[in-house]
Amino acid sequence: MNYGELLMNKIVELRDDNFEAELITGSQPVSVEYWASWCAPCLRVGPVLEEIAFAYSGKVKIGKLNIDTSPQIAAKYGIRALPAMMLFKDGEILSSTVGVLSKTQLTTLLSQHI
Hints:
CATH superfamily: Glutaredoxin
Number of domains: 1
CATH topology: Glutaredoxin
Number of helices: 5
Strand order of the largest sheet: 1-3-2-4-5
Radius of gyration: 13 Å
Strand content: 25-35%
Helix content: 25-40%
């Protein structure tokens, strides 16, 4: 397994059919990035999430949900602008942001909840 595969294994691909199960499994918080392939700012967030997923492995679960292929969850949580990020713990929303977060901003946010 190469470094890129190792990183991608740290990020959970969330979909309409596995979203709820991923939120309630385990005791760690779950950070969800809502994104779309046509969203240029979303694509800039990807490498930052990969670094965060590796650094916070075992402390925070990092997931990505494509709103085009999983519209039910996006609608349920009122996602209207991208990129959007929500931090969940025990199925409850701890934090919600819209826009590109820097690595520093994201690590600060996560550190407040772990």
